[in-house]
Amino acid sequence: MEKIFKVSEFNEFINVYLSSVGEVVVEGEISQINVSQGKWLFITIKDENSSVEVFGVADTLPNHSLLEEGMLVHIYGIPRLYQKTGRFSISAVQIVPAGEGALKISFEKLKAKLEKEGFFSESRKRPLPMFPQRIGLITAKNSQAYYDFIKVLKNRMGGIKIFFHPVSVQGRDSSISIIKAFDYFNSNFKDLDLLVLARGGGSLEDLQSFNTEEVARAIYASKFPVVCGVGHEKDVSIADMVCDLRASTPSNAAELIAEQKDYVMSKIAANFTYLYNVLNNLKDEKKHTVQKNVMLLENSLLAKEEKIRAKIKELSFQFEKFKLAVKHNISQVDDNLRLLRSLDYKNVLKRGFSITRTQEGDILRSAADALTNSIITTILFDGKITSRVNGFRGQVAK
Fold it and tell me: Exonuclease VII large subunit C-terminal domain: which residues (predicted)?
């Protein structure tokens, strides 16, 4: 008996069948694009004969802002049938510009967007260490870029430790692979000197992984300085513009990171010679300064010595004058002492003289001053004699 489906059953059956097909890649030109409510993406793509609807969630397709009508794209997604209306579409998981024209348009739009956000500003670019010791390398395993970088680096300087993280550098998942490599180094290392992102040359489509917003933001957010050596010299990617230092090739990246050993040694020798000459000149200059200061000090000391000698001479002269004055004064004192001694009444008394005082203590200078019956005291050199006046020869006593 033939199977009869209800419409909803048929649509569900077809949808299950389509889902089993798995992911497909469809190339077409965008004829219409619309973002609903800021999150639902509706696109129509076409070729010369047909068109197909594409549905996507804007948050899962970060590059949707770079898309525009007329752009050739590759839609990665799963075919499905909307059960309610039976409308066929592709549920997009990734949309990639295809063809040189679309890639150039996408490149210029992303470049303008990131430049406006300051991703390319020279003020945020970090300098590289002069002699890096630990480097993280992000490139394809067993690629020519890997071998060229390692060969040039080893020929220039030794002692550099390289931590290699292989990635896919082309194809649908290459951007995710590169982003995971940056996450790995930034999460697991604390002391890397820098990161190197390298790839050989190729077409604009081959280098598309290095022109995505996700990779640009991974480079911008890296806590280690990033050197990009992507493509050939003429190739300039978004990654080149965001990184801290752009190299024209993987080999050039190694050249910019490490100097030639011979050049470094010659530079060290030249700097040593320069420093030797500077120090030698400085030594001679300081020696001359010291000699000049010593001479000035000697002259100053000689001048001070002359002043001291003159002062000592003057003091000696003043001292001699002082000595003579003291001697003269002492002589005068001796004369005065002799005079005083000669005037001492005791010495006079020793020569036979005496002093007589009245009872009132006055010196009796005249016999006429002695009152009869008055008491008088005669002072001799060796004692006193007390007498009563009875009379005297000469004038009558009072």
Answer: 120-333
Q: What are phi and psi of 100, to 5 degrees?
A: -60, -40
Q: Which domain holds residue 354?
A: 348-388
CA distance 124 to 103: 27
Q: Could you tell me the mean pLDDT of each successive run of 10 residues in the chain, 398 residues long?
A: 83 86 89 88 92 90 83 90 88 85 85 94 92 94 93 85 94 90 96 94 84 94 95 84 94 90 72 86 86 86 85 86 84 78 71 82 81 85 85 58
Total domains present in the chain: 4
Q: Which residues contact 235 (CB under 8 A, 6 or more apart)?
A: 201, 202, 207
DSSP 227: E
Q: Within 135-212, where are the H helices?
A: 144-156, 174-188
Indicate if 310 and 363 belong to the same structural domain. no
β-strand pairing of 245-247 with 40-46: unpaired
